[in-house]
Amino acid sequence: MAVAEPRRFDLRGVKVYEFRDASHLIDYADARKGILVAVNAEKIAHSTPQTRNIINSNIAYCDGIGAVKAARQKGADVSKIAGCELWLKIIDRFHASKSFYIIGGKPEVNAATVAKLRQQYPGINIAGCRDGYLKTPADRQALIDDVVAKKPDVVFVAMGSPVQEILMADMFSRHKAVYQGLGGSFDVYTGTVARAPKWWLDHNLEFAYRLIKQPKRWKRNLCYIPFAWWLLWKKF
To answer: How far apart are CA 89 and CA 156, in angstroms?
Structure first.
């Protein structure tokens, strides 16, 4: 199915695609292959030349309400697409027809993720898996070589930014597929870490819930102050 090229919007140097919903994004990525990069207020406020290059060279989508509001100020027809939900929607659509490679998390979390996927999707083709602890350059190279050898259709990498994006870019240069960076999504999927309850999600307060649960995040969340100022005065 032909998918038109979506518009892109520049949010203070970070360029995001105009995806109406997760289905629109999945259609686009499946037709072209590429690396899916979640963009939120933190990634925009803390962007550097390196991270902007990574984001702008790939398929960036709005993963946070701040990014959505900023894009809408510039005329974009976008919706919030949560990365921790997107990867499961990809599996829902393609589990019977495509192969997957699962990378990231602690060894026990990675194993639990694979086991739960196989239970939830009987017959799913998981071509390979590897935890996120690549201790040496040789470990990293062995992983890339294994992905290239097994040629999965979809690769999920849960290692945090920008490490996961850099790794995905290296893999993509040798094997074209759909890649998605997932951060801590395997922890949420396996129940190791609880996601914000529905009320917090419905009111776009997931960031506040995470701060309450993890107070040490307060320094990271300071970025919301200038971001709110940019939104208020339409500085995007």
So the answer is: 13
